[in-house]
Structures are given as C-alpha cells and as structure tokens.
Amino acid sequence: MTAGTERPIRRPVIPKGPATYRMPPNLADYEGVRKSFRWDEARRALSGLPGSRGLNIAYEAVDRHAAGSRAGREALRFIRADGSTRSLSYAELALQTGRFAAVLRDLGVGRGDRVFSLLGRSPELYVAVLGTFKNASVFCPLFSAFGPEPVRQRLHLGAGRVLVTTRALYRKKVAPIRDTLPDLRFILLADADGNPEPDTLDLAALLAQAPPDQDIVATQPEDMALLHFTSGTTGTPKGATHVHEAVVAHYATGLYALDLHPEDIYWCTADPGWVTGTSYGIIAPLVHGVTVVVDEEELDVDRWYRILAEQHVTIWYTAPTALRMLMKAGAERAAGHDLSALRFIASVGEPLNPEAVVWGQDVLGLPVHDNWWQTETGGIMIANFASMPIRPGSMGRPLPGIEAALVARDGQGKPLIENGAATLVTEPDVMGELALRPGWPSMFRGYLNEEERYRRCFAGGWYLTGDLAKRDDDGYFWFVGRGDDVIKSSGHLIGPFEVESCLMEHRSVAEAGVIGIPDPVAGEVVKAFVELRPGHEPSEELRLEIIGFARKRLGAAIAPRLVDFTTNLPKTRSGKILRRLLKARELGLPEGDLSTLEQAGPRP
Ligand code: AMP
C-alpha cells in the first residue's frame, strides 16, 4: 500500500482550538487506565438482560435507554436526499425493533437463523439489525453496491433465511439468483408500499400488524449475533462470526477511542454493509445513548459540510478515501460552514495520509485521529486518542485491554514461531506482522464452517492480523502494508480471487491476475491482467466487454476498473499467479522491491 509506505511526518500534531477542550477526554490517563483496565469491569458498565437472562446487544443499545431517562432522546436522525430529517427516539426504536423481532418470530425464524440485509442507510436497516438481535437470530449485512454474484455467494455461504431489501435491489440483484438459494425463505421488501413483488413480503405491513414484543429472547454472551463477510487472498469470502459479548468492546472503544460523551451528536459515514457501519455506525454510539446522524445519501462534498454544520455534529468518524475527496475539492468548500460544534474527528479503514491529519487541523479546525482494526477484531484495537498528541501517519497506540505486538518473520515471510512461542520484534522501527493477544470481547469466534482457516490465524499465543507494521520508541504503531494480496479500494476489502474467478467465466478469458494499484483518492483501484483463450484477440471492444461483464456480476465497487491483456502472467512452479510480481512490474519497480511482501505466507 503506497500510502502506508510514504515517509511519515513525524512531527506530532497537538490539537488546538477551544472545541477540543470543551469536554475532558474519557481517557485522560492512558498509562493509568491501561494498567488497571479489566474487561469484566467494562462489562459491569452495561446492564445485562433483566431477570439475569444473559446479555443482548439490542438491550444495551436501545431498551435500557428506553426504560430510563433517555427514552425521549433522539437515537437516530436520518437525513433524506432533500436535507429534511426524520428521527426515532430510543423509546420509538425500542418499539420498532420489538416489532421486527415479533415479525421474525411469527415467520418461524428463530435462534441462530440468519437474517441478511441488502439496503442503503434507511431506517429499516437499523430496525432490522437490532430487531434480529432481539429475536436471538444472527444478522449479516451486505453492501448494497454488490452485484448479484457476491450477493448470491454470501447468502449461500451464510445460509441466509431472511433477506431485507428494497424493490429495486431485489429486482436487479436477487430475483435473478433466487432459484439457486433454497434456504432463503423470506424476502422482506422495505418499500413494498402495499404491493410486494411475487414471493416477497411487505415489511411495513408486517411491522404494522406485529405486537410490540417487549420481551427480548434470552441470549448468552457467547451466542452468535453477527456474521460479517470479509475477503482473503484465496478461496471464497470468509464469514467472520461475532457474539453478543462484543458489545462490551463496542462500549469500551466508543468510550476511549471515539471519546463518546452522553450529549454527543455523532456521525459515522461508513456504509452499514461493512463492519464499521454496524460496530460504530449502530452499536457503539447507541450503547452510549448518543444521537446518531445517518445520511441516507452518498458522499457529496457540499452536502457533507452542510451536515456537519447544520446537524451540529460533535464527533465524526470517517475514512481516508472520503477525506481525500474533501481535500481534493479544496478548502474553500468548507468556508462559510460553522463547524464549531465538532470536537473530535477519527478515521479508519486504510492508511490515513499524514497530510490529511494536518489538513483536518487547518480546514476543519481539528486534526484527524487515525485508528486501526479489521472485521475479525470486531472493534477498534489501536488508536490516536483525544488526550494525546497525534503522530501523523501513525495508527496510534493499543486500546486499554488490548495487547499488540509485532511478530518477527522468517526467511520465507512466515511468522517466526519456535517451540510454540512467537519471536517478537522488540527494537523500534523494525517491521513485523501485527499481532494481538486473543481474549478481547469483540474478537471473532470463527470463520463460518471453516475451522481450519480460523485456526491458521493464530500462532504462538497470538492472533495474526495479516498486516505488516512497525512500532516507534514511544509505542505508536505505523502501518506498512498488507502481508497478503488483498486489495483495499475506497475502504472496501476486495479479494483478488473473487474477481479473478468472475473474469474467468467470460468466454474469452483463459486466466486472470488481479491486483490493486495506487490511486490518489480510492487508495487503490482494482486492475486485472487477462490472458485470452485461443481464437480471441485483444481489442478495445473486448476490454470494455470484459469490464462490463465484471461490473454486471460483481458490482461497480468490486469489478476491475482497468483491464490489460497479457500473454505471460507470472506464476509459481505450481501454477499459482504471482500477484506481487505482477504488481512490481506494473509499478515499474525492480522485482526484488516487493520481495519481502511477496514472501509473506498466504493469509487464509
Ligand atoms: P476490514 O476487515 O474490511 O475492516 O479491513 C481491515 C483492513 O483494513 C486491515 O487489516 C488493514 O489492512 C486496513 N486498515 C484498517 N484500518 C487501517 C488504518 N488505520 N491504517 C491502515 N490500514 C488500515
């Protein structure tokens, strides 16, 4: 990843401006809290289900507020395309999510059954996620920009029983593949308007008939709550499973890494189809009882500045791609917007360019605090905290309760494990594989139906993240790059194998190699190199046909933006495509330059 390998600006940025100091940070004494922190104490800040019936994310996020003094407080504030808003209070959200749970129950959908969504940021999505938890079912969000093939594959792998979607998305992406999904029993249309498609149900009508089901089904901390698909280098997407106990980490990280205070107005720009959109777009802020702003539209520079100003957003959690788009649009676009309510800005998902940290300070009045985590960790693991100077280019320091280390690698790029113990990098500024000591509550509990793939993520007592990083003398971590071939484009993780497999279904393609190449805004864009079958000749027309084919099946967010024809895809002796070599060639680097990364053992 180029952005991560740029020379970082090492000068610390100390937040200035009155807004920063309006609120004492929750983590004022980092060292002290790290020493005394215990996860079971964090757990005590939550309520647990009444009557000692266990722990349920929806109860912590909604019902315990609805039962108390925050009942009337705005929980979700949706901003429609025209800028008008509609809100749900905690009490209303408790009612709606109870009804959704009752709808599931009446359909015979029960404990552990999978409820999927293919939705934009609409109220139905939020109601469905939390209502699913209340019914002890398992929620799996899908990115609404996926094409039919990624949707089919994930519904199939996750044995989706229910899908909540819209009429347009159903017609375009689900109807054509529905026959191949026998487990998918119920399709609930959020916008059926009294007239559902054949073999689908009208969600609004079902909700209207459902009794508000106040009793949340008993759930234990280890019961599965969420399924998030993520991409690896090889094979099918991996379904990372998360349990109700994750809410303890969402609470603690919301407190420390996002500095959430009860009166905050919070905006997370992540799409709820990905893990950030659920962990920090829904769960963490609601657990803290704050007001969550939800923009129903996609990124638009002027709209975003308007939202920050007019909604008086105090905490903003966004992503490097979005910040780069704002930077590109020019500082003058921010002028005239009163951003004085903002008191904390954080970013996640990709390397945050040091320039973006400084730009935040200059243009928004606050620097951007980078933090790091991944689908498998379920919650923020490493962060620049409100109470500390930021090191631009660094991901920050581990959260209380999180032990992070760098595992040295052997000559083959594999983690160095001797006699069952990992050899750790102890010197500053030396690269190793970022590793975390297992045991935090939001850690994934497995890859669905892939025990062996899950097991291979652990060695010598550590969870290996697949990312390469360094640590400086003061304990700040610096992202170096991925240890594998997975692509990050506009913050979305893309498995090259999934793209290659799709390309090879085109009649002209014999073989394909897919890599990410640097892009100033998206971080990386997907580029494919294809070898043609005999009888097919490269042409501009064929290139466009292949791109169109991939876009239709995979969706624009995953399909390659660029396709090159080649006759010599680099391969290992066993015939595996050497994507790293392809990348070195593409970037005009001596092939040895990527050798360290290339040697990295394949991530499952
Ligand atoms: P995902 O599982 O889709 O959330 O993607 C997780 C991956 O995104 C990580 O393993 C990193 O490779 C990358 N990532 C997340 N946050 C950061 C960050 N702050 N800096 C650099 N890379 C990041």
Automatic annotation (TrEMBL):
<dbReference type="InterPro" id="IPR020845">
    <property type="entry name" value="AMP-binding_CS"/>
</dbReference>
<keyword id="KW-0436">Ligase</keyword>
<dbReference type="Pfam" id="PF00501">
    <property type="entry name" value="AMP-binding"/>
</dbReference>
<dbReference type="InterPro" id="IPR000873">
    <property type="entry name" value="AMP-dep_synth/lig_dom"/>
</dbReference>
<feature type="domain" description="AMP-binding enzyme C-terminal">
    <location>
        <begin position="498"/>
        <end position="576"/>
    </location>
</feature>
<feature type="domain" description="AMP-dependent synthetase/ligase">
    <location>
        <begin position="65"/>
        <end position="448"/>
    </location>
</feature>
<keyword id="KW-0007">Acetylation</keyword>
<protein>
    <submittedName>
        <fullName>Acetate--CoA ligase</fullName>
        <ecNumber>6.2.1.1</ecNumber>
    </submittedName>
</protein>
<keyword id="KW-0067">ATP-binding</keyword>
<dbReference type="GO" id="GO:0003987">
    <property type="term" value="F:acetate-CoA ligase activity"/>
</dbReference>
<dbReference type="InterPro" id="IPR025110">
    <property type="entry name" value="AMP-bd_C"/>
</dbReference>
<keyword id="KW-0547">Nucleotide-binding</keyword>
<dbReference type="Pfam" id="PF13193">
    <property type="entry name" value="AMP-binding_C"/>
</dbReference>
